[in-house]
Design brief:
- This protein has 388 residues and is α/β, with parallel strands linked by helices.
- Helix content is 62%, strand content 8%.
- The protein contains 17 helices and seven strands.
- It has helices spanning 2-29, 41-59, 61-70, 72-80, 82-102, 110-121, 127-135, 140-156, 164-190, 207-217, 228-233, 235-243, 263-281, 297-305, 325-335, 357-372, 380-386; strands spanning 194-200, 223-227, 247-252, 287-288, 309-310, 340-345, 376-377.
- The strands form two sheets. Strands 1, 2, 3, 6 and 7 form a five-stranded parallel sheet that branches. A two-stranded parallel sheet has the order 4-5.
- β1 (194-200), α10 and β2 form a beta-alpha-beta unit.
- The model is unreliable at 1-6 (pLDDT under 50).
Length: 388
C-alpha cells in the first residue's frame, strides 16, 4: 500500500488532472466565439487521443529510462536553467493570452456585467451598484478593487476605466499572478523533494578523500556515520569532513552487533565512540546508526540516555557487495522517494579491506540524476530539526 501511495497515486492524480485540462481546452476551442470552431469533432477526438497517448508515454517507466539515457544532458541543462526558462515561458504565455483576447469576442454577463456597469456608471449613478451589492455583498471586494483600478486607468486615458478590453486584460494579469502564488504555495507546502546522503563505516582512505572531492565539486552536504576506531586512525579526515560542512554522526566505537552486547557493553561503546568523535570533529554528536541497523528498545533507550537519536535508512542499494556502479545507481533510482535517507558506504568495517571505488563512482551519477529530478541534498540533522 505504501508503494501504491508514493508511486501510483500521484501519477494517477496528475494523469486525471491532465485529462480534465485537455477536455476543458478542447471545449474552449469549440466555443462559438472562436473562428476555429468550424473544425470537425473527429479532429478534436484525434487530438484528445494523441494527448492521452503522450501523457501515458511520459508517465511510463520505459519513457523515463529512455529520457535518462538519451536526453539526460538536455534534461540537465533544462533544470539548471529552470528559472530563466520559466520566465520566458511565462512571458510567452501572457503574450499568447493577450493575442487570444484580441481575437475573441467574450460577452459580458452575470456578476461581472453588474460590477462592470456599476463601476462605469459611477459617480453619476450610484443606484445601479448599490442595488447589486445589497443583494450580493460577497462581491464588494471585487467591486472596490475594480473601481480603484478604473480610477487609476482613467488617469492615463479617460476611456480605459470603462473599457471591457482593459478589464479582461486585468483579469489575465490577476489570473497569472494567482497561478504564480498558488504554485509557490503548493511548492512550499508539498514539494519535499529532499534526499539525505549518508555514508557508513568510514573514514577510510583513499575512498573518503575521493568522496569529499565529489561532494565539494557538486556542493552537496552529507551525513557520515563513523566508526570511532577508524576515526582515531584518520583524525585528519574527520577534521576535513567537518571543515567542509558535513554532518558527523556515530556508527559505533567498534562495528559490532548491538543486539549481542550487554547493556553495559552498549553503554561503554556508545559513550566512548561519541566522546572520540566530538573531540576529533568539534561537533556535537546527536545521531547514531547502530551497526547493520540492528536495534531494539534496549538499544534505543541506551541511545536516548546518551543524547542520541537512532537513524536507519529508507533506500539501500547494498553497495558494500560491490555489484557494479550501474547496479548501485539503478537500485537507488528505483527506490527513490521524497525524503529518502540513502545508505552508502565510504568505509569497510570491521575487516577494513574491501574496495569502495564502485560506491565513489556511483555517487557523482546519483547526485546528477537526482538533481535532474528536482532533488536537493541536506544533512539528516536538518530532517530532525524539521521534526519529519
Amino acid at each position: 500500500m505504501n508503494f501504491i501511495y508514493k508511486k501510483w497515486l500521484p501519477s494517477a492524480i496528475n494523469g486525471l488532472f491532465l485529462f480534465f485540462i485537455s477536455i476543458t481546452l478542447i471545449g474552449a476551442f469549440r466555443s462559438d466565439n472562436l473562428k476555429i470552431s468550424t473544425l470537425t469533432n473527429h479532429f478534436f477526438l484525434i487530438l484528445l487521443i494523441a494527448i492521452l497517448a503522450i501523457v501515458v508515454l511520459l508517465f511510463s517507466k520505459h519513457a523515463k529510462k529512455w529520457i535518462d539515457k538519451y536526453l539526460f544532458g538536455v534534461k540537465k541543462i533544462f533544470l539548471e536553467n529552470i528559472g530563466l526558462i520559466t520566465g520566458i515561458y511565462f512571458i510567452f504565455g501572457f503574450c499568447l493570452q493577450v493575442f487570444i483576447l484580441t481575437n475573441i469576442s467574450a460577452p459580458i454577463g452575470w456578476d461581472v456585467s453588474a460590477i462592470f456597469n456599476g463601476v462605469s456608471a459611477l459617480p453619476e449613478n450610484k443606484e445601479v451598484i448599490s442595488n447589486y451589492l445589497s443583494i450580493n455583498p460577497n462581491n464588494s471586494f471585487f467591486f472596490f478593487l475594480m473601481y480603484g483600478i478604473s480610477k487609476v486607468m482613467n488617469l492615463f486615458n479617460h476611456t480605459w476605466g470603462s473599457s471591457w478590453f482593459v478589464w479582461q486584460l486585468w483579469n489575465i494579469i490577476f489570473m497569472d499572478i494567482g497561478f504564480v502564488i498558488l504554485f509557490k504555495a503548493a511548492k512550499y507546502l508539498f514539494n519535499k523533494k529532499v534526499a539525505y546522503l549518508t555514508f557508513d563505516d568510514g573514514p577510510y582512505p583513499p575512498y573518503t578523500d575521493e568522496l569529499l572531492k565529489i561532494l565539494e565539486q557538486r556542493q552537496v552536504k552529507a551525513t557520515f556515520f563513523m566508526v570511532a576506531e577508524n576515526a582515531e586512525k584518520h583524525p585528519e579526515l574527520v577534521a576535513k569532513i567537518a571543515a567542509q560542512g558535513h554532518e558527523i554522526a556515530l556508527h559505533a566505537l567498534k562495528h559490532r552487533d548491538f543486539l549481542k552486547l550487554s547493556l553495559a557493553e552498549q553503554q561503554k561503546d556508545i559513550a566512548a565512540g561519541k566522546r572520540i568523535l566530538e573531540k576529533l570533529s568539534g561537533q556535537k554528536i546527536t545521531l547514531m546508526r547502530p551497526p547493520h541497523g540492528f536495534r531494539d528498545w534496549a538499544v534505543i533507550d541506551t541511545l536516548q540516555k546518551n543524547g542520541l537519536t537512532a537513524v536507519n535508512w529508507s533506500v539501500i542499494p547494498r553497495d558494500w557487495t560491490n555489484p557494479g556502479v550501474s547496479v548501485i545507481v539503478d537500485r537507488i533510482m528505483e527506490q527513490m522517494h521524497p525524503g529518502a535517507i540513502i545508505l552508502l558506504h565510504d568505509g569497510d568495517s570491521p575487516k577494513y579491506v574491501a574496495s569502495r571505488e564502485e560506491t565513489i563512482q556511483a555517487v557523482s551519477v546519483i547526485i546528477d540524476k537526482l538533481r535532474a529530478e528536482g532533488y536537493n541534498f541536506v544533512t539528516v540533522n536538518e530532517l530532525m530539526q524539521k521534526g519529519e
